[in-house]
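In the laboratory, one determines a bound structure by crystallizing the protein with its ligand and collecting diffraction data. In a computational setting the workflow is compressed into a single prediction: the sequence and the ligand go in, and a structural description comes out. We illustrate the idea with cytidine-5'-monophosphate.
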Amino acid sequence: MKKNKVFVACDTTDIKKIKRILKETQNKNVIFGYKFGLEFLNSKNGRKFINSLKNRITFGDYKFSDIPNTCSSAIRAISDLNFNYLTIHISAGLNALKAAKKVSGKAKLIGVTILTSLDYKALKEIGFNKSVKRLVTHQAKLANKAKLDAIVCSAQEVQIVKKVFKNEIITPGIRLNTSSDDQKRTLTPKQAYKNGADWLVIGRDITKGNIKNNIQKLINHLDK
Ligand code: C5P
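The predicted complex, in structure-token form:
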């Protein structure tokens, strides 16, 4: 049977907490990768710690969004960290995506579509008038054009993304319980895999409280 794959969002600046996450997510039923976002990557000891990691699937969630030259220079500047996955906002534009892809080397380059914390109302506020689904489809086509290796989108959009993008699909905004925190476009792990997600990103539902219990809850939910 295909193993479920989960990126744990390591959203903290506390190295001790990260070490605990790494230790307590050892599990034979799930393949875990580790996503380091802006909080950890900008922390004092973050870079050094990532350099010391061995034999882990790592994901640098930099969400680059800048002019092509700055995006590609930044990717070159972190090449020593040997991330397996890196993110760039698709809204940075086709030329930035192409420039980033040119220098990303062995790292898989992931295009981030509309953030899962945004809904139609929030998009209108920043000047977008298309529906979330139409915007995400549009961006997925651009990711395809730039030959990106993966896409981040809400699990609610996996099926429409699959029509125009054939590589990996990674979905944050995953919730086991009813509390969605700051996320707007959420689904359960089971629904996300059913829709065809290759990887889920789960942060607080794993890292808050007892990590081992949270993982067991996740496995029970998937087995049901
Ligand atoms: O705690 P939670 O499961 O909501 O964490 C989700 C993680 O995924 C966070 O690290 C967040 O930065 C990231 N993310 C997201 N939505 C995106 C892209 C990344 O929530 N569209």
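The chain is about 40% helix and 20% strand. Keep in mind that any predicted model is a hypothesis to be tested, not a measurement.
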